[in-house]
Amino acid sequence: MCGIFGIVAAGKCDNLNILAANGLASLQHRGTESSGLVGSDGVTRDHVEIIKGHGLVRDVITEDNISKMDGQSIIIGHNRYSTAGKKKSGINCVQPFVVYTAMGTVAIAHNGELVDAKQKRTEVLHEGVGLSTDTDSELIAQMIAKAIALNVKCKYGQDIGDITRELAVTMSALNMSYSLLVMTFDRLYAIRDPFGNRPLCVGTVISKDGSPQAYIASSESCALPANAKLDFEVRPGEIVELSADGIKSVWQMKPNTPLAMCIFEYVYFARNDSEIEGQQVQTVREECGKTMALEDDIEADIVGNVPDSSLSAAIGYASQSGITYEPVLHRNSYVGRSFIQPNDEMRQNAIKIKFGVLKKKVQNQRIVLVDDSIVRGNTMRTLVKMLRDAGAKEVHLRIASPPVKFPCFMGINIPTSQELIAAQKSIPEICEYVGADSVRYLSVDGLVSSVQKGIERTTNFSPGHCTACLTGKYPVPINI
Ligand code: SF4
Fold this sequence. Notes:
The chain is of the alpha+beta class and 480 residues long. 29% of the residues lie in helices and 25% in strands. It folds into 2 domains: 3-256, Aminohydrolase, N-terminal nucleophile (Ntn) domain (Glutamine Phosphoribosylpyrophosphate, subunit 1, domain 1), CATH 3.60.20.10; 279-445, Rossmann fold.
C-alpha cells in the first residue's frame, strides 16, 4: 500500500506546491517510509524539480525546500510503504520515479505491486534495459519509456506530452496490481489496473469565483482540500487525463476480468472519511460491526474497542446488538515505533505504554472487545490481561474481519504464515492464547455483503473484491 497524489493547475495557481504537500500529508496513513514530490513547469520537456527523502511528509517536505516547487504547474507525489524493493535502500527507491524518454521527462508514482514482477524484470533486463533499483515501479517506468521510444516517429513535430497510446500499450502488457500517476511535461494521467485493485479518484479544486483552480488525482478522496469536489473514481482499466484544460477519460481497457478491489482497503487501510466505490469507508466499517452482531449471540454489558481504527465497527456492533458502547481503552498517540523487546515482560510494558485501561468503565463488566484484525496476537493477549487486571468480569473478543491466513502479492505486507496466529491456531486455541472468554471473527460472506451492500445501492456496475488473504483464492495465478 502506498499513497499517490497529483495536481495540475487549471490556470494561474500560486499555492499548487502547498496543495500538493498537504494532499500527500493527508495520505500519510498509506505509507510512512519515504515521500517525494516531482514538479513540471508545464513547458520544459526535459526538466523537473524533485524533493525526495526518507521519513514522514513533514520531515521530507519542509518550509525550506517547498519553494523548489514554486512556479510548477503539475506536481505528483508519493508516500512509500515498501512491498517490492529493499526497505532501507537508498534514495533511488523513493518515488516518484523520473525517467528521461524519447519525448521528454516522464515521472511516475505507483500504488500496488506487480504479481509477475520477477518475470517482467527478467524480460526488461534481457531487452538491454539497465535497472537502478529492485522495485517493480521502476519496471513500469521503463516499460512506458520503451513504449514511447517505439512510437517516437509519431512524436516528432508534436508539441504536446500526450502519451495515451503508449500508456495503453504498457497497460496491456502489465498484470495486476497498479494504480498509477504518470506525469509528462504538460499533463498528468491517472490509471487503474483492470481489476481495480487499488483505489484512485479525481477531483476539482474550486476557486472563490466558482471557476476551477486545479485538478487532482489521489489514492483517496480524504486528500482533497476543503474547497474541492470529488468528481469521480477512475474506473478499472481506465486512463484519465488531467491538464490545464480539465479532466477527461482518454482510454478504457475492454473489461475482460472480474473486479478485484482489495477488500482490506475497507477493513483497515483507507481513511474513514474517504469515499471508495461511492460509499464512505466509515459507513462500511459500521456495517461490518452490525453484521458481526447479527452473526453473534453473546450476552454482555458493554461493547468496547481497541482504539482507534475499530471504533466504527464497535459502534455498528453496539447499535445492532443493543448493548451500550463504552470506551474501555485509551491509546497514547505520542508513542512512536516500539523497539523490539527482548522478553515477555518488556513486550507487555511496551504495550502498556501504548494503551491505558479506563478502570471505572470495565470493573465487573462483561465486555465485547472489538478490533479490526488480529495478526500475531501478542498485543491482544496483553490487552485482555490488562482488562481483567482492571476488574473486567468477562472479555469476549470480536474481530471485524475474517481470519487472515494467506500472504498478499498485490501490495500489502502480510506477515508470513508462521507469524499469522490465524494460520497457526484454531479459534479455540487463539481464545486460549489471548486469554479471552470467547473469540469470534466476522465471516467472509458477512464482510463481502457489508462491503457490497452500499455499492449496489449507489452505482450500477457489478462489484467484485479480492479476498485472497482470507480465502487463498487469488484473482490471478500466482507464480512465486
Ligand atoms: S490479498 Fe488481501 S490485502 Fe492483498 S489485495 Fe487481496 S484482499 Fe487486499
